[in-house]
Write a structure and sequence with these properties.
mainly alpha, about 375 residues, about 5% strand
Length: about 375
């Protein structure tokens, strides 16, 4: 979301947003010098709430909620998205206090727009109102562009957000980047929506695991775990994704399911109580086996509700999947006999061997990924 702040020294309203490489800012308008800071900060806070509500329609799209029947979560999200067309009117003609009370909208988006409008009404500065209306239009357009898979301009801030769904345009763009570098080029983190990038990365991880399994003799779902014996790696999540794909899930299903689960936990929801009960039972059995107590004390034992970082689940998943591809290369290089044995080589020869090993592995993964490209469709 875009953040808004007041520069008291310059008397300006500033907008700031992230890009994956750093933050950008722009001056929105000059502020009235005769107004106290509380009224100006109220405007900045209301604009931040409006941005947050608008971007939530992107991170929580209606289609990811399942049913669109009336009064379902999907229906509510769809209705919220429709309110984009009413934002400018809500800012221009906000609900104002009357008789000591004020009408509050059920829509987070429209209520935020009304707060912006009330703040502008209190400031009563036509030039500022015009500038804020233009800013709101730019912010809403950025969300709309991100929905279409266009992350240029202000929409680039989507690269820092986790989304419950993945744009096919963005998945295809991430797939092209991975074709150039199967280990994951830096552009994946500042040019692509992280959920979409993770979908493509899951496909390439599955291809890397297949290549490594053929060379090592291990099952594809085991290769990242085995690579952990060579180098300490975050193997749990890549192994989980490989297992889901091996069980028949598409990369899209595997990734969006994990990201959605983590986002629900971030929102304070428990998406699958039955699975949690099974986790608790497994934990109790493990502790019982370890301690020998029939009724072990679980009071001081923490249980992770999601394998992902709930503050940044999609980006965390993307990082782990790319690490999984690196892990596959580590194990593949131990068994690849084509390039010969690197034993007794000097540093320069070893470095050249490693470079050639990565290039050969990358090419094998490209061929396998292309062979199974229908997984991404």
């Amino acid at each position: 979301m875009t953040c808004y702040s007041v520069d008291p020294a310059r008397g300006e309203l500033i907008a700031t947003w992230g890009t994956g490489e750093g933050d950008l800012s722009t001056r929105i308008a000059a502020l009235p010098t005769t107004t106290g800071s509380s009224a100006l900060l109220a405007l900045a806070r209301a604009l931040a709430l409006l941005s947050d509500a608008a971007w939530r329609t992107y991170t929580h799209p209606a289609g990811a909620a399942g049913s669109l029947e009336p009064n379902t979560e999907g229906w509510r999200r769809e209705e919220e998205r429709k309110h984009f067309a009413e934002v400018v009117d809500a800012i221009t003609k906000p609900h104002l206090p009357s008789g000591g009370a004020v009408m509050v909208s059920y829509s987070r988006l429209l209520e935020s727009a009304n707060r912006v409008g009330r703040a502008l009404h209190n400031l009563d500065t036509p030039d500022l109102t015009a500038a804020v209306l233009a800013e709101a239009t730019v912010e809403l357009a950025a969300v709309e562009n991100a929905e279409l898979g266009d992350l240029s301009g202000r929409a680039q801030q989507a690269v820092l957000l986790s989304r419950e769904d993945a744009s096919p345009v963005q998945v295809a763009a991430a797939d092209r980047l991975l074709q150039t570098d199967p280990f994951g080029p830096a552009e994946l983190f500042f040019a692509i929506d992280p959920t979409a990038a993770a979908v493509a990365a899951a496909h390439w991880l599955a291809a890397a695991a297949e290549v490594t399994a053929e060379a090592s003799g291990y099952e594809p779902v085991q290769v990242v775990l085995e690579a952990d014996n060579i180098e300490s790696l975050p193997h749990e999540t890549p192994t989980l994704v490989l297992g889901l794909i091996d069980d028949g899930a598409t990369p899209h299903q595997a990734v969006t399911g994990l990201v959605r689960h983590a986002m629900h936990i971030t929102d304070g929801l428990l998406p699958d109580p039955t699975a949690l009960r099974e986790q608790l039972d497994d934990l109790e059995e493990t502790v019982t086996e370890y301690t020998g107590d029939d009724e072990p004390d679980l009071e001081d034992i923490a249980l992770r509700l999601t394998p992902l970082d709930p503050k940044r689940p999609a980006r965390d998943l993307l990082e782990d999947l790319l690490t999984g591809i690196h892990a596959c290369w580590l194990l593949h290089s131990e068994y690849d006999e084509v390039l010969g044995d690197a034993e007794d080589w000097d540093d320069e020869q070893a470095e050249e061997h490693q470079r050639r090993s990565r290039e050969r592995f990358a090419q094998l993964v490209r061929e396998t990924a292309a062979h199974h490209h229908d997984r991404l469709i």
